[in-house]
Amino acid sequence: MTDVHNVIDALASISDHWQPHRLTSINDYDIKLVKLQGEFVWHTHPDTDELFMVISGELTIQLRDRDVVLGPSDVFVVPRGVEHCPKAASEVSALLIEPKGTVNTGDAGGDMTAELQEFDA
């Protein structure tokens, strides 16, 4: 595995939506890339904040009291314990920063729970 990671090349290798891939790790955090399309599930992460950075497309993070709309290069942190539901009318590429072991569906579980994927070396 190399020390240098190219975000664009890594995203090009992702074909499934809502399946996060670990790009790299720093300390106790994973840097993940994911492609999103459609609506996810309402969920919370009771013990951690979750950072979203949109690389391409437009992502709406639905909160119970408002919607947060992110475009390319926008960053938003969902605070720990805040219920949210990401949705994307068309494909979005995003970078996530979360503690290692964070499950994508948080406390909701269900069919959209994904096992963290690794990029090929």
Helix-strand topology string: HEEEEEEEE
Give me the secondary-structure category. mainly beta
Helix content range of the residues, please? under 10%
Radius of gyration (CA) equals: 13 Å
Tally of alpha and pi helices: 1
Give the tally of β-strands.
Answer: 8
Mean pLDDT: 93
Written description of the protein model:
This protein starts with 6 loop residues before the first helix and ends with a strand. The chain is globular. With 121 residues, the chain is mostly beta strands. Strands 1, 2, 3, 4, 5, 6, 7 and 8 form an eight-stranded mixed β-sheet that branches. β4 and β5 form a beta hairpin. The model has no long low-confidence stretch (mean pLDDT 93). The chain has one helix and eight strands, in the order αββββββββ.
